[in-house]
Sequence to fold (515 residues):
Amino acid sequence: MSFRDESEDHKKPLLHSGSWYKLGSRQSSIMDSRQSSTIGSRESSTIGSRQSSITSPTAQVARDGYISVMLSVLIVAMGPFQFGYTTAYTSPTQADMIEDLDLSLSEFSLFGSIVNVGAMVGAISSGHIADYFGRKGSLVVAGIPNIIGWLAISFASDTTFLYMGRLLGGFGVGIISYTVPIYIAEISPQNMRGTLGSVNQLSVTIGSLFAYFLGMFVSWRLLAIIGILPCALLIPGLLFIPESPRWLAKMGRTEDFESSLQVLRGFGTDISIEASEIKTTVALASKRSTITFSDLQRKRYWFPLTIGIGLLILRQFTGINGVLFYASSILESAGVSASNFATFILGLVQVISTGVSTWLADRAGRRLLLIISSSGMTLSLILVAVIFYLEGLVSEDSSLYTMFGILSVVGLVLLVITFALGIGSLPWVIMSEIFPADIKVLAGSIAIMANWLTTWVVTLTANLLLSWSSVGTFTIYATVSAFTLVFVALWVPETKGKTLEEMQRSSMYLSGHSI
Fold:
């Protein structure tokens, strides 16, 4: 029996089952395949024919598994694409929205930052939603308010609809920001988890770039209408990918769990060892009592909570979202005339740098990239602060002022590059890896809520701080970035090359040592 014949024997299930295929005959099919392969090998007269009969099906199996995982990741990546589009929307639209709706700077700052309040609400409920509806179901729940929110913004005539639409969009993004990293981590093979996990942040940057690019050509209302597209594509796309095997195992849906895992690893792959590890971990987690906030105070949880939540908080307090939310106005204040185009260039640089980080995540390791990233961000922020200081000492008509404007763009480009190399994507990857299974729902929700709370603080205050002192603002951000470097160097462990089950059994949760 050929591999092609074997795969054609499987049946497609109902869409709600969360898998592509029923594998009731999987064991017999695999046995038949192995027997046929053995007989064929014995009858072969040359070594070359033996290698062909064994290697070719194995390579095909590996390719099928990678294709299944990649397709699943690319479809759910529409969620973080929506995330990036939402956060970048305010940058190219600030001047036009203030003029058309007669908004004050504080009203627009509230509009820009209130998305984080909605995201906090989404984050609080995201863990329970993802557990109740499943990873795929929770993304459907996230997509609907996003679509309604963009419609509200596009037809807004005052701040009421603006704020309502932004809150709804934030709620959806809050759920997305928890669910997508968890889903990717749970379906990925251990040797691809860092790379595929970084696709989350890569999609965020592509979404931001898309908003920056379109913002140069279309009105803010049309830009809001276009914002509907990511979730409009995500929701039907979810019908064609498997549910998380680990969630299915947790729900006791054994047949769907095995089907989903088999599809993600390739039909001819022996999944027995991985399936057994997942079942064991899920069984141990289910035997423990329900985790409450007071339980998180246990010493065994301190280390993963400190790392997972600490990285996300420090990531925001480096000020990166304040810079990206209001990049156009920052560049304009630095003397750059084509500020929207320069913002687009920043977005393009961020996409390319995040792509490099995605490639490096499973090669260089998480820890090294975080150290390089936080070091580069610190130097870049100091450079921008110095440039703004020197710019204030010269006349706007002088050639030095123009040169400082160019240098400010260089400084911000370096900031975006170094951010994207590590701090941009890897805290999400580490968060999805490091939390033990029994606290993942509660701890993940707290981590995402903390992320959005700090994002709200940064985006709400960024415009006000910049109007106070650009030099002071970037100096504050540089100080936080330097502390992030110390935090990573002293406490963040390397998680590359470990399965989720291995990390959850690791003594790091008891001792706080690197794994």
